[in-house]
Amino acid sequence: xSNENKELGFGALLKSFTKPFWxxxxxxxxxxxxxYGLFAVLAIYLxxxxxxxxxxxxxxxxxxxxxxxxxxxxxxxxxxxxxxDKIGYKLSLIIAYLLLGTGYYFMGQVTSYSAVFLMFxxxxxxxxxxxxxxxxxxxxxxxxxxxxxxxxxFYMMVxxxxxxxxxxxxxxxxxxxxxxxxxxxxxxxxxxxxxxxFFFKEPNREKTEESLGETISRSxxxxxxxxxxxxxxxxxxxxxxxxxxxNQLFYTLPVFIEEWINTTPIYDLFHKILPPIAEFLKNKxxxxxxxxxxxxxxxxxxxxxxxxxxIILKWKPITAMMSxxxxxxxxxxxxxxxxxxLYTVLGILIFAIGEMTSNPKFxxxxxxxxxxxxxxxxxxxxxxxxxxxxxLTKWITGDLxxxxxxxxxxxxxxxxxxxxxxxxxxxxYPKNEFYADAAKKLNMTQDQMTSYLWDxxxxxNIWYIIAGIGVLTIVGLMVYNAVVAKNAKAK
Length: 491
Hints:
By secondary structure, the chain is mainly α. It folds into 3 domains: 18-227, Up-down Bundle (Growth Hormone, Chain: A), CATH 1.20.1250.20; 229-405 and 458-491, MFS general substrate transporter like domains (Growth Hormone, Chain: A); 407-457, no CATH class. The chain is 78% helix and 0% strand. The chain is built from 23 helices and no strands. It is globular and about 70 Å long.
């Protein structure tokens, strides 16, 4: 909390926020509820067995859909932010919600690769339209005395939506099937549409005589101006590695848990400590769904972010970023290294600590190196490494995963070595049936087959690649810090 904020008490701060601020915060909660409610289970939905209502795509196809579309999402705010400034926030939000609602609903209705890709792209367009508007409303609805606290409230809403969305989608899809996840997301967006239509009024904003084309052109020129500062550009390139590693928590780990890890021990642990919560989390197999496990990352952030923020308050940004990434490497490596579910939970906790240590300091450092008067210009580059990392993620979560960790590919390799064959997986011959037949041919139960394949083929070794990217990021930051310090000393 800033010095200005100390002049106001907690209650006074809450009362100082305007109606547009609270509406933007509530809309952020529901938008994130919809997004994470789908995205947390998307990898499993795309590659899951068709007899359970999933799509049965390959890991390469999954990687293409998730990586390419989200990369587009994070590149687009450069354009959509300019459009929103031109046409107004209310109209922008209406367009965003119509796109999001349409995309979410029909994404649950279509089954072909091209149709799913197209509908997810519609979702991404809507999300890209929403992102800059929500932040802009909060910015224009706060002042020097309450902005720090205001953005804290706003990002708390992000975490609440990001936590409860996956929690409900996991429970609902286990009870009612996959389509309910998309219906839930559509309902969340519909609530936002009602809010913006009936309760939201356009806040004051600067209007210019520029055409839409001129506004978009100016946005690109501003980004290029910021990127001409090599100190900023070098940092953004290095941080692509952090986001590439970070993405594996949501793109790859849910599928990895689904294919290789028995989550029953997590249920047993919760049942000993908090039986009611264990019963809520339990799926119909008596275990915990993968998205519930991964969602612990958001839970840990909600619980520990304030504590971590206080601990690292006086740390230099680069020091905090390197320390956080190192901690995150340990966490992500542990999550993939073993097929013990409790170690997976420990790995996610460690990763969350690293994330809480490094991520806030990244934006803090960009703000610190921004020339006076160009803070917003430099902060506009924040999502560029996120976009590039999403684009590159397909290589890990798709190509490399299918080559080294895909359970189906490993089973076929084992069957081939033993001179055995099974048909190709199709809608008529789903993945679950393939697993059952493979176990029979190998004269094992499915649990025995999974343990045997794990010990023989070591699918968890993909952690070497993921951790290696994190190590390279730390080395890059060390070199960057040395060069920046040397240049500063020379000046």
